[in-house]
C-alpha cells in the first residue's frame, strides 16, 4: 500500500517534516515526564494519577503508531507500507483508541467517587480495584480492535493500492477492497457508535452528579478546587469525542476535512493532554519541578 497523506505544496515538504517531527518529540517527552513525575513522587501515588499514567502511555503509543509514518511520508518513498504493516497500524490504532475511550469513563467514575462519595472513596478505589479497572480498559480495547481488524482484513484486496488518508484506518482501507463493504461499514458505525455513546453517557451521568455535589459545597474555595480537578478531564474528553464523532459517526462521509481532523486527533490531542492536566494542578507542577 501507499499512504497518500494530505495534500501540501512541494515547497513546504521540509517545514512540514520538521513540524511533525517536533510535535512527535514534544508529545513523547511531555507524556514521559508525566509518567516519571508520578513514579518518583509518592504524593502522586493515588488512583487519579494511576489512571493519568495510563492515559499518558496511551498518548505516547497512539502517537508512535501514526506520526512516524506521517513524518516518513514527507520523504521520497516514505509513504509505502506493507500489507502486514497496514494491518498492524490499524489494529494498534483502534486498540489504543478504544482503550482510551474506556479509560476516560473510568476516570470520570474515579472523580465521581472522590467528590460524591469521599468517605467511601479509599475503600472502593483500592489498589486491587484500580488494577482491575485498568486491566478492563486494556482488555476491552484489545477485544474491540481484534473484531474490527478481522472484519476489515478478511475481505479480498486489489482495488488499487493508494490509501487516501494519513494512516491505515478502516474507512480508507475499505475503499481498496474488491468486495461489497456495506456490512463492514454498518458494523463499524454501530460498533464504534455504541461504544462511544455508551461511554459518553456514563461520563455525562457521572458529571451531572459531580456538578450537583460541587454546587452543594458551601465554601467558594472548596467549589473552586473541585471544579479545577474536573475541568482537565472534561477538556480532554471533549478533544477526544469531537474528532471521533466527526470521523466515524457520519455514515458515508467523504469530507476532505476528515484528514485535517485526523491530524488533530493523532498529533495535537496527545500533545495537549499533558499540558491540560498540569496547567492548573499544583501537585503535578511541583512533581515536575523535582525531575
Can you put this structure into words, describing what you see?
There is one protein chain. With 291 residues, the chain is mostly helical. It has a single domain (2-289), classed as Rhodopsin 7-helix transmembrane proteins (Rhopdopsin 7-helix transmembrane proteins). The protein is 76% helix and 1% strand. The chain has 10 helices and 2 strands, in the order E-H-H-H-H-H-E-H-H-H-H-H. It has helices at 13-40, 47-72, 83-116, 118-124, 127-153, 170-174, 182-215, 220-248, 257-279, 282-289, and strands at residues 2-3, 162-163. The chain has a two-stranded parallel ribbon with strand order 1-2. The chain is globular. The mean pLDDT is 88. This is Olfactory receptor 10G6-like. Its main location: membrane. Pfam families: 7tm_4. It is found in: Cell membrane. It is a multi-pass membrane protein.
Under the CATH scheme, the architecture is: Up-down Bundle
Number of E-type strands: 2
Determine the strand fraction and express it as a percent band: under 5%
Which sequence of SSEs, written as H and E, runs from N to C? EHHHHHEHHHHH
Q: Summarize the biggest pleated sheet.
A: 2 strands, parallel
Q: Supply the number of helical segments.
A: 10
Indicate the CATH topology.
Answer: Rhopdopsin 7-helix transmembrane proteins
Detail the poorly predicted runs.
none
Name of the CATH class? Mainly Alpha
Structural class: mainly alpha
Amino acid at each position: 500500500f501507499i499512504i497518500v497523506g494530505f495534500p501540501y505544496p512541494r515547497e513546504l515538504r521540509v517545514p512540514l517534516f520538521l513540524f511533525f517531527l517536533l510535535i512527535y518529540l514534544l508529545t513523547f517527552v511531555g507524556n514521559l515526564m508525566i509518567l516519571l513525575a508520578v513514579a518518583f513522587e509518592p504524593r502522586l501515588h493515588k488512583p487519579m494519577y494511576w489512571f493519568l499514567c495510563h492515559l499518558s502511555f496511551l498518548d505516547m503509543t497512539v502517537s508512535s503508531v501514526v506520526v512516524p509514518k506521517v513524518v516518513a511520508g514527507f520523504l521520497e518513498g516514505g509513504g509505502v507500507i506493507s500489507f502486514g504493516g497496514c494491518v498492524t497500524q490499524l489494529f494498534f490504532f483502534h486498540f489504543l483508541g478504544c482503550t482510551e475511550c474506556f479509560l476516560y469513563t473510568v476516570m470520570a467514575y474515579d472523580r465521581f467517587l472522590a467528590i460524591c462519595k469521599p468517605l467511601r472513596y479509599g475503600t472502593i478505589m483500592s489498589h486491587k480495584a484500580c488494577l482491575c479497572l485498568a486491566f478492563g480498559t486494556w482488555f476491552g480495547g484489545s477485544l474491540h480492535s481484534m473484531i474490527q481488524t478481522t472484519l476489515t482484513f478478511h475481505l479480498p484486496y486489489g482495488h488499487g493500492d493508494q490509501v487516501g488518508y494519513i494512516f491505515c484506518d478502516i474507512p480508507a482501507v475499505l475503499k481498496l477492497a474488491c468486495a461489497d463493504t456495506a456490512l463492514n461499514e454498518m458494523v463499524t458505525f454501530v460498533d464504534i457508535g455504541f461504544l462511544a455513546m455508551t461511554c459518553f453517557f456514563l461520563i455525562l451521568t457521572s458529571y451531572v452528579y459531580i456538578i450537583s455535589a460541587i454546587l452543594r459545597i458551601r465554601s467558594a474555595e472548596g467549589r473552586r478546587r473541585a471544579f479545577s480537578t474536573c475541568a482537565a478531564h472534561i477538556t480532554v474528553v471533549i478533544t477526544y469525542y469531537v474528532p471521533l464523532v466527526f470521523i466515524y459517526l457520519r455514515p458515508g462521509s467523504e469530507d476532505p476535512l476528515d484528514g485535517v481532523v485526523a491530524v488533530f486527533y493523532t498529533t495535537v490531542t496527545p500533545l495537549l493532554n499533558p499540558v491540560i492536566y498540569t496547567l492548573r494542578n499544583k501537585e503535578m507542577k511541583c512533581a515536575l519541578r523535582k525531575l
